[in-house]
Amino acid sequence: MQFFTGYIEGYYGKLLEWQDRDRLLDGLEAAGMTSYFYAPKDDVCHRQFWRQTYDAAWRRAFKRFTGKAATKDIQIIAGISPGLDFDFASLDQADAAGEDFTILLDKALMLLADGANVIALLMDDIAADFDLRAGSFTSEGTAHAVLTNRLGAALNAPIILVPRIYADSLIKSDDPQSKTYLKDLARDLEPHHKVVYCGDDIVAVQPGNDRDGCLHPSKVIIWDNFYANDYCPRRLFLGPWRAVNLPDVMLNPTGMIETDLLLLDLMSLFKNKRQKNEGLLCPEHLASWRKAISKRGVPDEFFVISYYFDTPHGFPMNFVRPSTDDALAALEILLWRWKAPLQREWYSCLMGLKQDILLSDGQFSLERLEKTQLQPLVSRVNSLTVNS
User: Fold this and answer.
1) Model confidence over 69-107: pLDDT tens digits?
2) Full-model pTM
3) Could you tell me the domains of the chain?
4) Cα distances (angstroms) measured from residue 167 to each of 171, 195, 229, 289, 334
């Protein structure tokens, strides 16, 4: 049985070039991982205009990409994300041309014909407006299960489902459908389909299946947002990977190719260490992290400020905050004397950090603030200064 480990192209705000995806295949092969999940939010044919067919040029490129993946024994999971506006009434009219289920099936068949190994159905990040498109269904969880089952039966293949409730934190008291969603989904979903889940939160401190145990662990693929920064693009997380001791784990990172290749290195490094039962934050572990960063040509000055790039909110910190003088001295090297592809990807975060440190330390004039920051922040900082 092959597990699902590897890379998710599933973030907002970035769309990779095909040559970048080729490099990621090389990185996955080197890391001994199995899978590439194609589901970029900014591919309009994947999500916003999912009914629109891919053109011939895209299909040629995708077919070449899947062919290269096959030579490396890497499976391509091809996502379709119809959740924004799928009409569930179409499940009662599946043979009618132009109906949503028929369009969905045709797109899945095209992706498989062009070399995809698995189809994923994504119903994530959508409004709680199921009643507007429910057709004859009264339960959203049941509707998503039936859609997955119907698509799998038509393709004669297992489907990977990303449900609307893909983290415990999405279960809301003011959303009646969300409270029964996973129970209904798990009850009605046929057992050969997999479900993607994050854990206790979207950036999960406790990755795994849901808190109520509706989803069986053997059916769950972890969507890991530990390094994702599309929700906070001024920040960048580069600390030791929080190893997930589960067999099916895929990483949704940044969409910056040099950075993501480094993050695959870290994921592979710490997954292997966890399998050997080594401590997550022991000195040897941190030394391995530093070696992996340095191997990518990052200067030692980065380790002075690594505190600021460590982990997302809610996770324990691995590093000590440096003094203002030490941080600013290191940033001078990293901003102006380090020249490399990684530096260009990190430049805006490094510059933003410098400005934030100066602002926090009282070294930023109002004029400089107005030149470098957006007006809402300028107004807020200025009001706090006046009222202090």
Assistant:
1) 999 999 999 999 999 999 999 887 656 556 999 999 999
2) 0.94
3) 5-225 (3.20.20.80), 286-387 (no CATH)
4) 8, 12, 17, 28, 37
